[in-house]
Amino acid sequence: MYVENTSAPARKPVTVPGLKAMKAEGRKIVMLTAYDASFASQLETAGVDVALVGDSLGMVVQGRSSTLPVTIDDMVYHTAAVARGLSSTLLVADLPFMSDRDVPAAMDAAARLVAEGGAAMVKIEGAGRVCDVIAALAERNIPVCAHLGLTPQSVNRLGGYKVQGKTEEAAMRLLEDARAVEAAGADLLVLECVPAALAARITSELSIPTIGIGAGVDCDGQVLVVYDLLGLTPGKRPRFSKDFLAGRDSIQAAIAAFAGDVREKRFPGPEHSFT
């Protein structure tokens, strides 16, 4: 599925069981988004563990106001492009809006992302009925990354891009959802815009790794949109992000700085987290 990146240092391929081993050993997981082969090559050379082809491409690449218009054809196209720039970095791809409306639809979409796009894992937002989809995919040996907290595909129901789990009731519901997606068979969990203390509790209770974005330093790893990391996103930068290109002379140096700060627990700081 992947092609060799000759500019990247040789290393063993990152695997799904390998991510769980990293959690057990206390080694932080570094994840970044990528949408094309060139950026994928930069991630590979910097030793990033996981590349995520997010449906965020709808906003940062296509210039849309949300992720909702992104199609499965869009996702397959960009996933295949990213795969061409990787050799050992694990590739994860989002299931776009409504592609998980039922188990057969999710199966078809996931099959395309894996078979045509070259993804090693698919990401799906939410819990509840989504757990049936996770279970069905896991039963067919398709690794799943769950996504809880601020789930951009639910932006209309949530009333905007807001921190989730702030009240005691909401926190308990999020904790229960985290337990449910793990029980359904998820191998990884992204926590987005969640109070740091709640994310730390979820991380301590689950056996699968958690990846934070605006969820504090105690998650098992961190992810950012690569355009946010480079200060390229128009308008106000999200609180949970940081411009790693500032003061550095290359994209490669910025990505390497992000990876180093995640692994040494220097990022995110309190100023990038929520209470």
From TrEMBL:
<feature type="binding site">
    <location>
        <position position="94"/>
    </location>
    <ligand>
        <name>3-methyl-2-oxobutanoate</name>
    </ligand>
</feature>
<feature type="active site" description="Proton acceptor">
    <location>
        <position position="192"/>
    </location>
</feature>
<comment type="subunit">
    <text>Homodecamer; pentamer of dimers.</text>
</comment>
<protein>
    <recommendedName>
        <fullName>3-methyl-2-oxobutanoate hydroxymethyltransferase</fullName>
        <ecNumber>2.1.2.11</ecNumber>
    </recommendedName>
</protein>
<dbReference type="InterPro" id="IPR015813">
    <property type="entry name" value="Pyrv/PenolPyrv_kinase-like_dom"/>
</dbReference>
<comment type="pathway">
    <text>Cofactor biosynthesis; (R)-pantothenate biosynthesis; (R)-pantoate from 3-methyl-2-oxobutanoate: step 1/2.</text>
</comment>
<dbReference type="Pfam" id="PF02548">
    <property type="entry name" value="Pantoate_transf"/>
</dbReference>
<dbReference type="InterPro" id="IPR003700">
    <property type="entry name" value="Pantoate_hydroxy_MeTrfase"/>
</dbReference>
<keyword id="KW-0479">Metal-binding</keyword>
<keyword id="KW-0566">Pantothenate biosynthesis</keyword>
<keyword id="KW-0808">Transferase</keyword>
<feature type="binding site">
    <location>
        <position position="55"/>
    </location>
    <ligand>
        <name>Mg(2+)</name>
    </ligand>
</feature>
<dbReference type="InterPro" id="IPR040442">
    <property type="entry name" value="Pyrv_kinase-like_dom_sf"/>
</dbReference>
<keyword id="KW-0460">Magnesium</keyword>
<dbReference type="GO" id="GO:0003864">
    <property type="term" value="F:3-methyl-2-oxobutanoate hydroxymethyltransferase activity"/>
</dbReference>
<feature type="binding site">
    <location>
        <position position="123"/>
    </location>
    <ligand>
        <name>3-methyl-2-oxobutanoate</name>
    </ligand>
</feature>
<comment type="function">
    <text>Catalyzes the reversible reaction in which hydroxymethyl group from 5,10-methylenetetrahydrofolate is transferred onto alpha-ketoisovalerate to form ketopantoate.</text>
</comment>
<feature type="binding site">
    <location>
        <position position="94"/>
    </location>
    <ligand>
        <name>Mg(2+)</name>
    </ligand>
</feature>
<feature type="binding site">
    <location>
        <begin position="55"/>
        <end position="56"/>
    </location>
    <ligand>
        <name>3-methyl-2-oxobutanoate</name>
    </ligand>
</feature>
<comment type="similarity">
    <text>Belongs to the PanB family.</text>
</comment>
<feature type="binding site">
    <location>
        <position position="125"/>
    </location>
    <ligand>
        <name>Mg(2+)</name>
    </ligand>
</feature>
<keyword id="KW-0963">Cytoplasm</keyword>
